[in-house]
Amino acid sequence: MKLTVNGITKQYKNKTAVDQISFQLTEGVTGLLGANGAGKTTLMRMASGILTPTSGSVDADGIPVDTEEYRALLGYLPQDFGYYPEFTAREFVQYIAALKGIEKKKAKKKTEEILELVGLSDVAGKRIRTFSGGMKQRVGIAQALVNDPKILILDEPTAGLDPKERVRFRNLIAEIGKDTIVLFSTHIVSDVERIASNLLMMREGKLIYEGAWNEQKGDLEKFYMEEFE
Amino acid sequence: MNNIGMLYGFELKKILKNRLTIVMLIITVFFILIEAVAPGMGNAAGVDPKSLDGRVIDDALLGELQAELVANGGAWNGDAGKYNGIAKWKRDVLESNEKVAEEYTAQQLYQAREENILSMMEENSLSDGEIAWWKNQMEGETPFTYYDYNGALILSQGLVGVLLCIMLLSALCLSTVFTVEHRQRTDQLVLSCKNGRGRTYFVKIAAGLSVVVACCLLATGLLALLTAVLYGLNGFNAVVQLEIPASPYAFTMGQFIAVQGVVMITAGILFAAFAMAVSELLKNSLAVMGIMVGLFIFGQLEIIPPKYLLLLKLRAMLPSNQVSVWSLMEYHLFNFGGHYCTGYLVSPITYLALSAALIALGGWVYNRFQVTGR
């Protein structure tokens, strides 16, 4: 599968949040780096179909982003997502499974599997409002994975996770990235270095770097710091 | 389709687990208890209100009333209390407490009633065609037959309270169905899912409408049950003119309650559709609550001069007025190419048409919503 972002722009009244960005992604993990306000979240929202670009297009093997067919392929974890405080973790993931069109029996089975995967099985019956920040983040990750997405978009997925959880989650992304297109944004350069086979770097709405990063190119963190000074 | 049922179940759960919904349901039950119990307080003991059931209101019955009036000097105690309903009817026809003790033949009372109705129709600027239509409806309706209709009346009046509760339930609980998704930032999760746009909107609407219709039915059922236990469900075959003599409608109390039921359920659908769709349009549930309460207050105001016929008709069509017993005194008709209809037919159809339009508008806005800012 190929995710194609073609000349995408998002223009607000007097600000261009994303400016003429184009790239293509295939199976594997792509890290998206950029300072606050660089346009990462806007780009990810457009790639998730919840924000319409001013110009340009996004498609997956020719399937346009604004279609049900595209959304059926998608798993999305927003940066600052909400939850239903009255729902338990199990209910929340099952609800998202229903939204994703998964048949009832399968949704229940998949929910249990995914909660096990993110280490929330023992608290699946507890209300989300009683959870810590890290546990809520894991619920968010679970909902993004419940439909076995072919395209996984994760906006700062490791934010709020403790170091142990971060490593565990990083490994999970690497595993999923073997047969899924994963685009994840982060501020943590080491996360990208460890698992991303491909790198996108944004500054002021523009793509300033695209491609793989290897040791011959030098220290990624140093490059990143220089670019955003 | 199976997952749509699952989605519907979750949307229903979201509404029913909302604390405001639980509070409103408790208030509704409490309100119904008051509506059912309060009318029975202070009723005269030892009176068999059904003893005159089936008697035609004619000179003979009015003569018995007159004899009791003379003997008891207008006090209605003990067995004489059975004439209370007839005396009330006579007072309402004559629109005077003092005249009740005076002697009138049945013919004179029916004549006075008809003159009163025609005079009010003229005051309300009814056209000749409307008056002719009403005269045709009223043809051969007298003499009236008396039945004790206390149970039916309590049920009928209680439905106004039920409607008020349904309006509050819609305004407080359903106006947040969409706005809470934006406020809690769950909208971005929902909209990125396969069924997030389109289907989910209609499932949410269906869940909201189901809650309102179920509440209408359950609240009416509870009121009917309490009324039956406390007073007996009597008087369904009594004509509405026993309670509202100036009404030209050819309804029995039972038929009127059925009409109220239809008006109430369709009004409930309109409340729910309005609360959900307009809150999505404005992205503000407080504004929706304000508009709904404002419309309710407008419906209670008596400040519209008779020359503003359209405004008067619109006010009469507001659900709180249309379901009230006093709507039986609404003389204005709707003229569709020479065919006249009453508000009882036009209002439910209008409520459903408006609901459909609001739902379509809300859907249009929902499907175009963009997640920005934050």
Give your account of this protein's structure.
The complex is a heterodimer of chains A (229) and B (374). Chain A has helices at 40-48, 68-73, 89-99, 104-117, 133-145, 163-176, 189-195, 220-227, and strands spanning 3-12, 15-25, 28-34, 55-60, 63-64, 74-77, 151-155, 181-186, 198-203, 206-211. By secondary structure, chain A is of the alpha/beta class. Chain A has one domain (3-227): Rossmann fold, CATH 3.40.50.300. In chain A, a hairpin with a 2-residue loop joins strand 1 and strand 2. In chain A, helix 3 (89-99) crosses helix 4 and helix 4 packs across helix 5 (133-145). The longest helix of chain A is centred in the middle third of the chain and has 14 residues, at 104-117. Chain A is globular. Chain A starts with a strand and ends with a helix. The mean pLDDT of chain A is 91. With 374 residues, chain B is mostly helical. Chain B has two domains: 2-40 and 148-367, no CATH class; 54-145, no CATH class. In chain B, 65% of the residues lie in helices and 3% in strands. Chain B is built from 15 helices and four strands. Chain B has helices at 2-16, 19-37, 59-72, 84-94, 106-123, 128-138, 150-174, 176-184, 187-191, 199-230, 253-282, 285-300, 309-317, 319-322, 343-367; strands spanning 55-56, 145-146, 334-336, 339-341. Chain B has a two-stranded antiparallel sheet. In chain B, strands 3-4 form a two-stranded antiparallel ribbon. In chain B, helix 2 (19-37) packs antiparallel against helix 7 (150-174). The longest helix of chain B has 32 residues, at 199-230. Chain A binds chain B through residues 12, 45, 48-52, 68, 71-72, 74, 76, 78, 80-84, 86-87, 91, 94-104, 107, 143, 147, and chain B through 2-7, 10, 13-14, 17-18, 181, 183-198, 200, 370-372, 374.
Number of strands of chain B: 4
Q: What's the end-to-end separation of chain A, in Å?
A: 36 Å
**Under the CATH scheme, which class of chain A?**
Alpha Beta
CATH superfamily of chain A: P-loop containing nucleotide triphosphate hydrolases
Provide the succession of SSEs of chain B: HHEHHHHEHHHHHHHHEEH
What general form of chain A does the structure show?
globular
Main sheet makeup of chain B: 2 strands, antiparallel
Radius of gyration of chain B, CA atoms, in whole angstroms: 24 Å
Number of beta-strand segments of chain A: 10
Quick check: average pLDDT of chain B? 89
